[in-house]
Amino acid sequence: MAILLPRTSNGLKICAKCFAASVLLIFLAASNLYATDFKVVLTGNTADFENPADIFPIIENYLATKPGPMLWVFNGDAFPEQMTIEQVAEWKRKANGLLDRNPELHMLLNQGDREWLDSGKEGWKRVMALEKALDREKHQRFQLFLGHGCPGPWTVSFPMLEVVVVNSQWWNHPHDKPKPSSDACTIADTDNFVEELEGILDETTDKNVLVISHFPVESLGNYGGRFSAASYFSPPLIGNALVGFRQNIGTDRDISNANLGVYRYKVNGVLQDYSSVILASGHERNQSVVQKDNNFFINSGGVAGGSFIAHSNKAALTSSSAGFVEITYSSNGRVAYQHWLVNGVQVSKKEAGPIFASACENASKGTANALFQPCNPVIKPSDKMDTPRPEPATVAAGSEYASKRFKEKWFGKHYRDSWTTPVNVPYLDMDTTFGGLVIAGKGGGRQTTSLKLVAGNGKEYVFRSVDKDPFRALAYELRGTVVSQVLKDQTSTQQPYGAMAVAPLLDRIGILHASPELFVLPKDNKLGAFKEQYGNLFGMLEERPTDKIAKPKVFAGAKDIEKSFKLFNKLYHDHDNRVDKAEFARARMFDLWIGDWSKHEDNWKWAGYKTDGGELYRPIPRDRDHAFSRWDGIIPWLADREWGMPNGENFAERIHGLRSLMWQARHLDRFVGSELTKADWIKAAAEIQNAIQQQDITAAVHNMPSEIYEKDGREIERKLKARIGDLQRYAGEYYALLAREVDVVGSNKAEYFKVMREKNGQVTVTVFDVFKQSQQADTSKTYYHRVFDPVETREIRLNGLGGDDVFDIQGKSDQSILVRIISGSGDDYISDRSEVGKGGKQTLIYEKDPNPHHELGTEAREVKPVDERYYEYDRNAFKYNTYLPIALLTYNPFVGFAVHGGVTFTRQRFGKPDFAAKHSLSASVSVKGNYEFSYNNQFRQLLGKWDGISQVTLSRPLNYNFFFGVGNDTPKNNDLPSNYYRTQYNSFAVSAGLLRQFWKQSKIEVTGSYELAEGIRRNNSYLADHPDVFGVEQLHLIFAKGILNLDFRDRAALPERGFRLQLTQQAGHVSQSRNDLASISELEMEQYLSNHSKNPLTLGLRLGGGIAKGQLPFYKLFSLGQLNDLRGFKRNRFTGESKGFLNTELRWQLTETRNTFVPLKMGVRAFYDLGRVWAKNDPDSANYWHQGYGGGFYITPFREQFAFNISAGTSNEESLLLMISIGSFFR
């Protein structure tokens, strides 16, 4: 019998008493079942049947084979779009009848894209309607996971199997769906989903794990980008582009699309930390069983008919026949698959094979099941410790952080002395401490080793290692590389015993917290199965705030203990729930004082206390790993610059980077602390100054081990005493950062937002309860009040969320603050009778309702954002403005050594994706006197979805590299000086236009430009000897330019698959030209094909051509050569009025290594190029094509855009021409 666990409450509202009774009933029924095998049948796309109920005769025939206890999974796309709600209910009644006739059968229904109307706009409403209809026909052995459209994860438990259900369509859906602020789900954001999934996998012990997801993360079908050879030619000339689009851009059904790309990356990242997990999908209309690392991916979605599937040597099964996959979980731990064929309603067995071998048997021929090993003896912890250990241990927190002077200079001395100094620490007496401690399980945390313990005093505790390892927190491709080694070493920036100094100081200011104590965990049988891994672990024991214990024992006498994301849900749900804002401000000023820069949402818990109508939550800050963080050394110093890492700050006597110090809590502070005024923040700082005296600081630092006081404690004490005196000033400065843009957030109940524009420019915002009948403010209940000053605040955003809210804006002033109203869902009423003398409209309304209730005067304007997400509140939307400087020293033979410097400024604004504007300035100067200056910008969505772009460049001179004359047969005299053909011209150019980016890498660009250019006649040069070349004199060029770039490649650098087409058209006028109008037309196409082996063989083809009309200066004509389309020849070797070329390349990756100094790909390449130009003055003898060929190798560290290529080319002119490039190959 299936046992629903409490995790199913994610997104579902479950009656606690009903749940407990159901679990008891099901458990009693299940206790006598499943002593043998348990089967899971995976199906998807049953909506493909003419009648979705046609699946039931197939199930009947399968059951006739007497499979025993089993679970039948409908893994999404069970119901077609046209299926009515009544037909869905009838389908469910038939399913219930089947369950009634087969007591060993269970069913599970997950959701897919067709339950969401093929990812349509009304998809969320549809899935809610389906859930309501199916819920009316309940059955205790039918597990329904539509869950209000929430992402999950949910769990269903069987005696030897844990089934984890996720809603991958939530990630994929491009329209309305549950968001955190909608209060529809416990979890409705990606980070908390990942945390919950990791928690499930961490806590599932001695059981198999099966993850159910409609969309695959690995696929061999069309939705996964695998196609037959015929697809590239169907239709001819277009089929390859369509395949490239499906492979790398993706429709809503393809797993390559941007939304599912995030899902696959996140889920793959989680699974890489675990073994023996099966992820089952049902999206592809085929069957496959594929192993990846130590896990398996199974797709089974072709029960109603199959479609193309590629074969792979990694696949144990590939089938495009109608059928399904059955998984058998054996009681000895063996896991196997059975492929079944479907013919009409008849079923028959086909291939079968192992997935995981039993650890109880000889597993040499397969992957052993690491999760479920029933034959291994269960190591039970002993009731009492074997041997008391009264004598303390002498241990060092991290002897591996010892370093020499060179390492300390570059990577910092940090707190290495504290880490390497041995300290005396008692062993933990698990028999007597807190009434006796019993292991409750492994703790969470991606950088800390921890255990959860239950104490005899009725409370829960956690034991955390002092040392940290960021290995699991890194992206998989960086693990085992120099990056992971450096980050591990930088753990020494942390003060290992800092938490012990923090705790007594928090006591002084009345902030809830745990009080850690240092112990060594004894290697004792009382640890049970954790003895070998955790024995002799050096760590800290502290109380674990939780409400999953007897109420009188709950931490700090609270009613509830919530994580941050659950607190947010409570605040979104009901405006009567609130946070003790004064206490929160005090906690944050304390963080500022001690330099704790890591107070992101996961480092807080919240203690809830019942009040009239709601709950009051007090903050419980936790995890003091980064208190007193020391960032010395050259590399950490650079990372600590304002333009470096956004978070982190060196703990010094003075605070230099307030923004980076508080960065990780920037969203939390703006949400929870929205109502706090400057006086509130300064008061919080003053309270800390008044409560903590100099002797308190001394005593707190001495709470750390005495052995490290002289090493680092005295310095920490000095800095704390210096910083506390300036705390009020820092509070005011931090308030100024928060005050520029403020979100006032309501709830999913109705509120009355009263806004008064004062004569002096200030704006008063008050949020009341609202009388539902009259829609008037209930002034007896005030939820928010704050006066905003235009000197401090640039804009205020009122977020209504759900409920029938009222927004009332009044008042007159000469100048005021911009107010944005994001009304949210509900039947809202907006009235604006305010007047502002100067500036544009100062009230902007974001209302999605097509029939809004608005009474607007002269000051308000309705805004229709380009992206519909701006109709909703996003707690994480705020971004700081940034800048990034860069400096380079380069060399090339034309200009010698050159110094380059530049800076890019990125500006943010509400309603703009990624950024609002970018401004880039750069300049360079060479030892030979060349100099260049450029400025370019990009304004996001300046005109609808079109960005504004412009550029200004000044080059004195600009290198054209070489010019050999115009024609396909121009001579190259090797007896002339090497710089004879070197060509330069002075240029001043200005351009401006519009840019539309779409489909990940594709774009349309339309610009107009002006250029003032003049060729330079150097003595003894080609231009000096050919004064008739058009372009030597000063010219004015005015052009319009259009670019269409359809880029369907998997990536721009080192592509393996995909297609690219670029069309460029220019038209304009050149002064002193014989023609009134000149034009330049170009076309380029690229195609990449690779096999799917670990080290792929890639064929790259690039075809292009161009035609120029009218008289153009030589530097605007087409050129072919080393850097442009014809390798094996000098740069710009052939110049003409038209061109044609074909580039071919064969690339073979030889190896890919990850656990090295840096992750590397290495390979070899060979190329063959064909090209020519046409010119009016070409003789008949020039009617031929030039050929160049060669080869080389490449090394790719970290990312493909850093690919370092060395190759040699040859031709009839060049015996050996060395080419070095980074990134692209064809150029």
From TrEMBL:
Residues 921-1207 form the Bacterial surface antigen (D15) domain. One of its GO terms (cellular component) is type V protein secretion system complex. Keywords: Membrane, Signal. Gene3D superfamilies: 3.60.21.10, membrane protein fhac: a member of the omp85/tpsb transporter family. One of its GO terms (biological process) is protein secretion by the type V secretion system. It comes from the Bacteria. Its main location: membrane. One of its GO terms (molecular function) is protein transmembrane transporter activity. Pfam families: Omp85. It is found in: Membrane. The keyword Membrane applies. Residues 1-35 form the signal peptide. InterPro entries: Bac_surfAg_D15 (IPR000184), Metallo-depent_PP-like (IPR029052), TPS_OM_transporter (IPR051544). The keyword Membrane applies. This is Surface antigen-like protein.
